[in-house]
Amino acid sequence: MSGRPLLEIGFDAAVIHWRGPAPFIFAAVPERHVAAIREAARIASYGWGCVPVAAEANGVRFTTSLFPRGDTYMVPLKKAVRAQADIAIGDTIAIVIGISGP
């Protein structure tokens, strides 16, 4: 992560497959971090509850946006990131996310 984000958190999460209108691969943010993300999102969100983040998973850096889902946020894991980081559905991965201001 570079710069000074509003919030930076790290956690381990299971990689899950969500079958919506299109299939997506996500990692859920643990409940203990949700309140802090909601607070930072008041400044950083671009709408619809989505929060842009700089992220690192298994040592691979990427940008994405957290999606609100129920009482948590989901970290989308694009195919290119999963391939580079050797991530598969069912894995538990280490993730660091940083939320910056507008």
Number of strands: 6
**CATH fold topology:** Elongation Factor Tu (Ef-tu), domain 3
> What's the main sheet like?
6 strands, antiparallel, barrel
The low-confidence runs, each spanning 5 or more residues with pLDDT under 50, are none
Strand content: over 45%
The number of distinct structural domains comes to 1
What is the count of helical runs?
A: 2
Provide an overview of this structure.
With 102 residues, this protein is of the alpha+beta class. The protein has one domain: Elongation Factor Tu (Ef-tu), domain 3 (Beta Barrel), CATH 2.40.30.100. 18% of the residues lie in helices and 48% in strands. It is built from two helices and six strands. It is globular. The protein starts with 6 loop residues before the first strand and ends with a strand.
Outline the secondary-structure elements.
Blueprint: E1 7-19, E2 23-28, H1 34-44, E3 51-57, E4 60-69, E5 72-76, H2 79-85, E6 92-99
Antiparallel strand pairs: 1-2, 1-6, 2-5, 3-4, 3-6, 4-5
Provide a concise account of the structure shown.
The chain has helices at 34-44, 79-85, and strands at residues 7-19, 23-28, 51-57, 60-69, 72-76, 92-99. By secondary structure, the protein is α+β, with helices and mostly antiparallel strands.
Features:
single chain, 6 strands, 2 helices, six-stranded antiparallel barrel, alpha+beta, 102 residues, Elongation Factor Tu (Ef-tu), domain 3, globular
